[in-house]
Description:
The complex is a heterodimer. Chain A is mostly helical. Chain A is built from 13 helices and 4 strands. Chain A is globular, with a radius of gyration of 21 Å. Chain A starts with a helix and ends with a helix. In chain B, α4 crosses α5 and α13 crosses α14. Chain B is 33% helix and 27% strand. Chain B is of the alpha/beta class. Chain B has 18 helices and 24 strands. Chain B has 3 domains: 3-241, Rossmann fold (3-Layer(aba) Sandwich), CATH 3.40.50; 248-332 and 418-513, P-loop containing nucleotide triphosphate hydrolases (Rossmann fold), CATH 3.40.50; 348-417, no CATH class. In chain B, strands 6-9-10-3-11-12 form a 6-stranded mixed β-sheet, sandwiched between helices. In chain B, strands 18-21-22-15-23-24 form a 6-stranded mixed β-sheet, sandwiched between helices. The interface between A and B is large, with 36 and 52 residues.
Amino acid sequence: xxxxxxxxxxxxxxxxxxxxxxxxxxxxxxxxxxxxxxxxxxxxxxxxxxxxxxxxxxxxxxxxxxxxxxxxxxxxxxxxxxxxxxxxxxxxxxxxxxxxxxxxxxxxxxxxxxxxxxxxxxxxxxxxxxxxxxxxxxxxxxxxxxxxxxxxxxxxxxxxxxxxxxxxxxxxxxxxxxxxxxxxxxxxxxxxxxxxxxxxxxxxxxxxxxxxxxxxxxxxxxxxxxxxxxxxxxxxxxxxxxxxxxxxxxxxxxxxxxxxxxxxxxxxxxxxxxxxxxxxxxxxxxxxxxxxxxxxxxxxxxxxxxxxxxxxxxxxxxxxxxxxxxxxxxxxxxxxxx
Amino acid sequence: xxxxxxxxxxxxxxxxxxxxxxxxxxxxxxxxxxxxxxxxxxxxxxxxxxxxxxxxxxxxxxxxxxxxxxxxxxxxxxxxxxxxxxxxxxxxxxxxxxxxxxxxxxxxxxxxxxxxxxxxxxxxxxxxxxxxxxxxxxxxxxxxxxxxxxxxxxxxxxxxxxxxxxxxxxxxxxxxxxxxxxxxxxxxxxxxxxxxxxxxxxxxxxxxxxxxxxxxxxxxxxxxxxxxxxxxxxxxxxxxxxxxxxxxxxxxxxxxxxxxxxxxxxxxxxxxxxxxxxxxxxxxxxxxxxxxxxxxxxxxxxxxxxxxxxxxxxxxxxxxxxxxxxxxxxxxxxxxxxxxxxxxxxxxxxxxxxxxxxxxxxxxxxxxxxxxxxxxxxxxxxxxxxxxxxxxxxxxxxxxxxxxxxxxxxxxxxxxxxxxxxxxxxxxxxxxxxxxxxxxxxxxxxxxxxxxxxxxxxxxxxxxxxxxxxxxxxxxxxxxxxxxxxxxxxxxxxxxxxxxxxxxxxxxxxxxx
Lengths: 338, 513
């Protein structure tokens, strides 16, 4: 690399980071705003824990969406999957499976639920890659099926844990004031971020999102890459489902309604492009943090709950429009060097 | 003068794409606009067609100064541009495309409610199609038309807006020989109607055949403009590259070794039938044939990109199973595809990432952690070796010129150290200088013992670069010729499926194997 080339390269790297910086600045401004409006309550440890739990839930789902959306897919099943896996884990631990299986312990109960998440994700991936079914459709199918199955096996009744069950620590416990679920999110975020940035698989995920045919002709096993993304999304939905069941103290088929849309919204606010090829873990977390802080702050400042949705919707649209405008600058350059 | 452009300048971040370029065009003139990739041809034409705004300079149409604001405005001014990738909607009829957004109306009920006069639209579209001599029914769906016919629809579309200036960007690159002839006839017809044509091409011989005048751009500047009868191919090339070029298609001798790749009975229903051949170490095997003869399809079958119905592939005498490109890469085969933008590169990724894409696993320590330093070193190594002109490794591939993109695709495969490299039209659409570099590179690879399959529609390239030539016709191997016995005439005779008894072919006994 020659001396002259260092300038633009540094600039480009700065620019690449800049996108998340925008989201970060927006997030910090929001925090400042709500701190200014409610200095007494906003930074209370209890309130911060509420925000962190919110981020733990939607950040997890948003990360799965980011992976799938990078490969130009979408996963509409994750909200229903949280219900399905929450019910599964509760049912296994409290009731077992009829005469076949007595109630199981906490670890197998959780692991089986996570395994279900992965299997459903692989199922989506196989339909998308081997049969060419649009991801929207196949995951829409699961959106109905997963919640339906959850409601059917429980006959609609929540499976309630007794208070003091060690399982409840997962969703309700804290370490030094920080919710365990939030720590789990950070751990998972680090792992996925490392996969995306430091492993061959991560490079391939971006390559497949950028141009699937060129990637295939470069010897990339594009089916496997896509299946991995759906499987991870399924796994993260299952993990979210387990944590939600623990937090609520019950596995219930009505949990997680429309969470997939919140996950997608958080991913998009965090800079993930629905055109594929772009998106980061940090963006997903920051996107869900923005949604979390806004929702929390609006409650604290007594904004009407009806108006809250309106405001969040406006934020989403602004984020997408901003992304489009930024992209248009890129498009011009692309035309020029055709 | 129909058109006069004066002192046109345009800069992009980091590049002066055009600097003070003058340009003029007379009615009924066919002007050949030539220059290497990145010389500024496309930029100049995009300014003319309103896709870009100029930084400086003036444009006069019929001696009246105009400020071209948008592609729509350019169209109103009678300027039409036909890009390499057509702007047609495949699921609509030719007529609907010709009259897109200007459909004849009837039963107009005020400004917002009216109906398309379909019959009139089709009738007038047919007139325009007939005017260019296209034997295309106006009612045919564009997706059912051949590339050449789609191009005629584009020309008809330009006529329908009453264009006085038609810009054709690389119009022949996707056409077969016959179709090129048809296009030249059409250009002749347009010329008689006093329409001025700007013809951008990389094939100089075409300029000398049909242009009245040639304008040469280099590095954003006009370096030459002369009537065609005063121009010589050598000095035009000299102007384009600004340096002397050696023998155009010259393969340096390489030692031809043991058989490396053996293909037996490769077939895919309706596309390729019973293709067998052997490729030796250090050999360049040229694949000649007309467009649609099954050359690209054979390459794709060999590479596992499409499923094959039959056939075995042996490497070093051992049967290998190739059912996917992944298998092919594992077996040491690389493919430089014809369409580098859509198939060769991930344009949204950096040069670095594109170069290492087939070999990512080689850079993973402990099987998963990418060694970024060795990744960078490898990529930088190939960028230097192939002289890929990019400001830095993180540059996105979409910002490179055509020639540098092609070199990046080649770099990607060199980094995988292939034993067999398939190159599909390796120099199509790249400039003369880059072309020579790609050829030199092929020679070096062959000398290093790589077996190369080169698909090319340019016969001089086939004859100059190949050790042996496999001619395909209608999905079959028509002949495999040694370099010494091959001439353009013989190859064309086999490629067009002429009778074996014809005089040309008879002149080379044993030519067919």
